[in-house]
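Before the break, one more example. Copy the sequence into your notebook; we will annotate it together after we see the structure.
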Amino acid sequence: MPGFTALLTPTEAKARYARAYVPRPRGTERVPLADAFGRVLARDAQAPEDLPEFDRSTVDGYAVRADDVAGASEAAPVRLALVGEVLMGEAARTPVAPHTAVRIPTGGMLPEGADAVVMLEDVEVRDERTVAVARAPRSGDNIMRRAEDVRAGETALRAGVRLRPQDLGLLAAIGVAEVEVFLRPRVAVVPTGDELVPPDRRPGPGQIRESNTYALAALVRQEGGEPRLYGVVKDDYGLLLRTLADARAANDLVLVSGGTSVGAKDEVARAIDELGRPGVIVHGVEIKPGKPTILALVEGTPVVGLPGNPVSGMVIFDVFVRDVLRGLAGWTGPRGFGQVVRARMDRRIPSAGVREDHIRVALDARADGTWAVPVLGKSGIITTMTRADGVVVVPTGQESVDRGAEVEVHLFPP
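Here is what the structure looks like once it is written out:
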């Protein structure tokens, strides 16, 4: 087992773990479209038909032949005979012959013969049978052509996309009522420590309320996983071993918080190695906060030991766990941190330089641009996370970030 003193950089730790383990989805299932939000598409979605299936208007107005009104202007409007109206939800029945117009609503089917639509505000109704066009449209103006959105047989969405509201709208529009998605990863959340008590209980001397379960479970759900809560495991090696064995057998990923350091009661690494091969792959990372991180694999199941410190646990989840979960979920989007914005640092921040430093910051939009305001506090202060919008990563070897320096802020997912 790698010694805790042989610290790896986050990049080295990821590379070593990636050589031992590549996360893959467990399987697929079919779900109704109404239940598919946030799920990861397991198979390409092919359009069974054109979208739209007919030429249609994109505005309220009058369907015309563009050549008939080519010279129209406010000073010299072109008169056309009004010969009919298109009704919503019905086929266009009246064709547009030369020098005629048909009234049409937004989304209405374009009548035969028309090749443009004049907006309502550019037309004056002279009487029940005559309109005057005051602006000349070009052929194709204000029209959506058949199959302009998606053509029958075309791939509307690729496998591996996490379905967003707009994706569900597209699938509904092409007649897909049920989709094949990857199964949600099952993630065990196992907090450890004699000092932990439930949130509804007042802590006694030396005790604290257990919060990692709730933060980690929410982060798992954020990535489309299914958290399974095992409750607090006291500092009893036999109990820890049995709990981890059960969790490993029943889940796709096991997250253990606490017990990952090198103190007398920090037995997580030993228990993982006893459970199966290859065991602990990384123990100790050059990162602040989060140094006592464990990356392990037990008989094919990934196990991640996170520091018991809540802030450290959330940082390590972002750095290591999120990508594992995305792989287990089948998501093919970009790995690593999420959205990145550029800002200027509000004050000089010293860094020890010996570890990658994750500085929590809040964004402040000012007249001269966006500034990153450090949210200072020790790694055990949870409010440094709740008051922050993201983190600035100071690489190993860099001893400070100067005030005014341009930085990349890795935003927390919403």
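The helical segments are 10-20, 165-173, 212-222, 237-250, 268-275, 310-329, 383-386. The chain has a mean pLDDT of 94. Try to locate both features in your own notes.
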